[in-house]
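Summary for the steering committee. One of the milestones for this cycle was to obtain a three-dimensional model of the protein with magnesium ion bound, which we needed before selecting residues for the alanine scan. The sequence and ligand used are listed below.
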Amino acid sequence: MSLGTVISTFEGPSTSRFSFVVNSSKLRKGEFVSLGDSNPLIAVVNEVRRANRYFERAETISEYEKNGSVKTDFPAQDWEYVVADCAILGVFNGSSLSKNSFPPSPGEKVVAAENSILKQFLGFEDNGLKLGKLMQHEVPVTPSLTRLLQKHLAILGISGSGKSVCATVVLEEALSRKKEAGQIGVVVFDVHGEYSCFADKSNRDFADKTTVVDGEKIRIACHKLTPIMLSMIFPDLSGVQQRAINSILKELTKKMKDGAKAFDLDDVVSEINASKMTQNVRDPLLSKIEELKQLRLFSHGSFPIVKDVVKSGKLTVFDLNALTSVKKKQIILAYFAQRLFNQRRKQKIPPFLLLVEEAHNFCREKASAENAVSKSIIETIAREGRKFGASLCLISQRPVQLSTTALSQCNSYIIMRITNPFDLKHIAESCEAIDSSVSGQISGLQVGEGILLGEAVNYPVFIKVRNRATRKTRGGHSLEELGRQFEETTREITPSDVEAFI
Ligand SMILES: Nc1ncnc2c1ncn2[C@@H]1O[C@H](COP(=O)(O)OP(=O)(O)OP(=O)(O)O)[C@@H](O)[C@H]1O
Ligand SMILES: [Mg+2]
């Protein structure tokens, strides 16, 4: 389809840019266009503007105004034209783009880039993850599993922009892969209980592949409490206090290995009381152990067992929706992520994707020491995970609060609508792949629309994420629905209830 004709302007055509007069009302900013038949030149429309030479001079305006802006003898409207400014991306040589060394000629016809060429030059694959389609073209967005996830993915956007739906689509695609296409295991740290629905019978394709771990039932065995973990949970312990508690834990673990039964925090308390430590060491330690007991997390044994959490082609959802303590959630994530990473390094479990919702709460840029329990493991996986097949998918609505280290180690990004200038600035600073032409358009995106950029694709593209296939059972209800639900589940107190109570 012809879109227009290249014009000669002050700046070009040059080897990097050109402009053309548009003859189609359908042309949109961000669209890909091409010139020439064999080995076409591919370009992207960076801006579309209107021009009218009649209105360039001040005196024509007064002439125009005199006539009441309605009709002059001069056909001013006929002089109006639409110009598209394009950046040249390269010459398509049949498989990829090579550098363009010669400018296009004024007068050349501009047409819409062919879908098959776009697919190839953007690097989409037949057996890639079907995330949706390009916004300006009927081209499916299908980045390969490796390119999208191996070097970590960040999904960023304001609340309600479609991050969780996008993450759900990524999971659906990752879990639908056949064995021969290469599968990975998926683990989700789900703070709002949005992913448990994968296990619902109504989601037939996924129910059998999904295990939901109830956050309240998660336990960590006391003998797995390492000195490093303790110092992360309680960064304010003095050196003496740390040595004291570590030696007690070591002693109890040794006894356990020698045949005694597994111990819990009450045993640790008894051991502290029985020890000869001074009061200024004992009292703070006892109060710390009491704090740990309040979390109702540490026990005789662990649940779930780490090696059961990751299985090829399967999903484990840690449903942390019912937990209110941020610290408890951080400890759970830190413990399991650390173990999974260690096991993966030793090749004891399959490669996996770790999806973290509300990542800014687990890996904060400016976290106080006691709020940074899970930060270091997320940063470690972000830095080293790709070598071992441990990938991260970080989801956040407050990128400015997300660790720069973790964010800059993500090599693929799906950026949905973001309006806060601080968040935009932080993203632009952390992600090499973003330039000003891209960041300027992020605030105008609609729900479900985003920009895919980085490792996953050869050139940043605007995408419309497909809707989820799995049915959602919880969360995201309207106020009206929540009100109705409340009314239905709570009934009025009747006289018989009062009687029964008395
Ligand atoms: N790709 C899409 N196709 C159709 N509808 C969508 C799409 N993405 C989002 N929506 C709609 O927008 C709603 C909000 O999306 P979602 O829950 O993914 O937002 P979010 O960015 O995760 O928000 P929050 O930060 O509050 O968790 C969805 O319930 C759905 O109705
Ligand atoms: Mg969400």
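Key point for the committee: The mean pLDDT is 89.
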